[in-house]
User: Which sequence fits this backbone?
């Protein structure tokens, strides 16, 4: 129907190695890219800058977390701290007069260097203890950011982020900011797509499956853990910087607290570990859920004629969000990406359901 | 900073630390039986305090009756959490289990805020505010009471683990499969450990809310509980007790020395630093069991 083929049949190796082996996938990606490029034309600026833009930036961030969690298999409960380091580094660099293009690279490098500290915990411990030590590091980073006036500008302070300037042009329009986010998201996505096919990506997967077994076949597991932490911190740091530059326009310590780490983790888990399209689904789901939930509650309140207190309304989406994580882990542990894959697998061989691809 | 006030913060720190041990004991109980690191222990403590308040205020029960009702309720809630959420995750990767307890943490915290609201409410256990002097040291009565209850709980657990049911739980924590093969109902044992941990959380909730009132900040006891549990060794109840005292003393002294230098709020920093140092230097804690990893 959609894919017009009953299975995948390659006749040479280059077809098998292609990034998207199925023609229909290439078509769909092309159409989606065109739609994304044309979004400022047909889309209301409100939707563009308050839904589409944060979704793209958070997807890039979630992909960075997926690299460490889904590819390298290392737990990371301090991802928001890494994003915060990137954000603060970029804001301070641009305020010091460094051009924005260089400032975000600096932000990424700062985040990668400090984020590699997390990897030294991974040198000694793994699994549960790694999770707990990254959680503790998140608290240390939070504390440092909010209590060192040179970083945060004092307790409870908000630092204004300067406007983004690309090659001397100030990017202030909604469409311009959207394109910055889109370019970053496409860059990270194509990096992650290609990662699967490189030696680095395969080494990471080997470390994830069993680090001793990886060491036996000559993969230096500590080196690759370090690389994984540094790379994902780089992506996280730049994503944090772009999130501040394009969406929040000001930076405070609360934007990168431990709750945000858990939110990023929820994006990856609800989406699905170790898959790229699932990060898109996960980020969309977690970002859109509170808004959808709120409008559903207000719709239900008028429909059935009940009223809820302000506190109830404020905390209900959060409770629902917790219930959602529990529900996904119980019912579909592989996340939204797995549901998409099931549908895709069914359509791939449709109408010959009995053939396996 | 004179010696007396330093000793005073150390003594009060030790008492507070014993109250941290209560939270840690809940984590240890669950970890011992099922190797699940329960990151929802803090919000279970908070939920218990809200449940108690609901019984005491709305139903108008006297405080001791309300406490026993809350203990019974939390016993059932603990069992229900294990049955609904954790049992189906047995044998899954640790990443899923950790995420599940984080999801539970968010759900329980936000759920109790949804039902009861977020304003801080006092909880009065009838402990007098009159100063208590131990030699030259001024001791907080609420902390002293909490410490006594903690030690009593520890005594109860020492006796419990010698009883028939306690031996069953020890067998389960020793080896899942072996316990199964000699006819022990592992599921029931794990459910019981969750229920007991919920009861410990209730007691911790009562004591802590009498100190700082009932609100969302009770859930932040998680960091202290996790630090104490890891420091003492994740499968040692006695370790949790001693590590609590240790953390409390270090925290008390460090915060009274560091607070003027750093401008306050150094307690959380001390906790996080203790947790990181423990994991880097001695991951199995002071009294925990070395685990030999299978390659």
Assistant:
């Amino acid at each position: 129907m959609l894919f017009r083929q009953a299975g995948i049949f390659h006749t040479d190796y280059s077809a098998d190695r292609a990034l998207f082996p199925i023609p229909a996938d290439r078509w769909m990606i092309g159409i989606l890219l065109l739609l994304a490029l044309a979004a400022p034309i047909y889309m209301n600026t409100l939707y563009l800058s308050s839904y589409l833009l944060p979704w793209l930036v958070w997807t890039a961030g979630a992909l960075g977390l997926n690299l460490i969690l889904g590819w390298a298999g290392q737990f990371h409960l301090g991802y928001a701290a890494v994003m915060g380091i990137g954000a603060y580094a970029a804001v301070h660099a641009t305020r010091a007069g460094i051009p924005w293009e260089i400032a975000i690279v600096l932000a990424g490098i700062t985040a990668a260097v400090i984020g590699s500290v997390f990897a030294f915990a991974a040198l000694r411990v793994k699994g549960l203890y790694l999770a707990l030590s990254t959680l503790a590091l998140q608290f240390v980073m939070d504390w440092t950011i909010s209590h060192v006036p040179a970083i945060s500008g004092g307790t409870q302070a908000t630092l204004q982020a300067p406007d983004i300037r690309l090659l001397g042009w100030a990017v202030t329009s909604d469409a311009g900011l959207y394109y910055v986010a889109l370019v970053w998201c496409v860059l990270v996505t194509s990096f992650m797509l290609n990662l699967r096919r490189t030696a680095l990506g395969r080494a990471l997967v080997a470390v994830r499956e069993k680090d001793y077994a990886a060491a036996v076949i000559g993969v230096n597991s500590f080196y690759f853990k370090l690389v994984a932490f540094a790379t994902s911190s780089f992506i996280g740091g730049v994503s944090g910087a772009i999130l501040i530059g394009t969406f929040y326009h000001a930076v405070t310590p609360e934007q990168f607290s431990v709750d945000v780490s858990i939110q990023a983790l929820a994006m990856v888990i609800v989406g699905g570990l170790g898959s790229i399209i699932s990060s898109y689904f996960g980020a969309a789901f977690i970002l859109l859920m509170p808004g959808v939930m709120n409008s559903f509650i207000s719709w239900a309140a008028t429909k059935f004629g009940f009223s809820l207190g302000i506190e109830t309304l404020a905390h209900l989406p959060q409770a629902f969000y917790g219930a959602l994580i529990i529900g996904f882990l119980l019912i579909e542990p592989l996340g939204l990406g797995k549901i998409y894959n099931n549908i895709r697998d069914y359509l791939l061989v449709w109408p010959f359901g009995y053939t396996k691809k | 900073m004179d010696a007396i006030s330093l000793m005073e913060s150390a003594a009060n720190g030790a008492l507070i630390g014993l109250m941290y041990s209560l939270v840690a004991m809940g984590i240890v109980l669950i970890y011992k039986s099922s190797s699940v690191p329960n990151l929802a222990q803090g919000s279970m403590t908070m939920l218990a305090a809200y449940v108690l308040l609901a019984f005491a205020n709305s139903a108008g029960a006297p405080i001791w009756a309300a406490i026993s009702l809350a203990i019974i309720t939390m016993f059932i809630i603990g069992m229900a959490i294990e049955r609904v959420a954790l049992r189906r995750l047995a044998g899954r990767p640790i990443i899923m289990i950790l995420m599940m307890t984080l999801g539970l943490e968010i759900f329980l915290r936000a759920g109790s805020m949804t039902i009861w609201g977020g304003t801080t409410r006092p909880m009065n256990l009838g402990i007098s505010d009159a100063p208590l002097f131990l030699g030259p040291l001024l001791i907080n009565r609420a902390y002293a009471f909490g410490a006594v209850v903690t030690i009593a709980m520890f005594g109860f657990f020492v006796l419990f683990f010698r009883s028939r049911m306690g031996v069953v739980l020890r067998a389960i924590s020793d080896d899942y499969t072996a316990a199964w093969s000699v006819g022990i109902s592992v599921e029931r044992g794990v459910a019981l450990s969750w229920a007991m941990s919920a009861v410990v959380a209730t007691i911790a909730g009562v004591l802590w809310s009498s100190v700082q009132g009932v609100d969302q900040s009770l859930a932040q006891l998680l960091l202290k509980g996790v630090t104490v549990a890891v420091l003492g060794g994740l499968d040692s109840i006695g370790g949790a007790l001693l590590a609590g005292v240790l953390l409390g003393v270090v925290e008390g002294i460090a915060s009274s020395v560091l607070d003027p230098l750093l401008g306050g709020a150094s307690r959380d920093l001390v906790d996080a630093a203790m947790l990181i140092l423990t994991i880097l230097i001695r991951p199995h804690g002071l009294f925990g069991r070395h685990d030999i990893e299978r390659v």
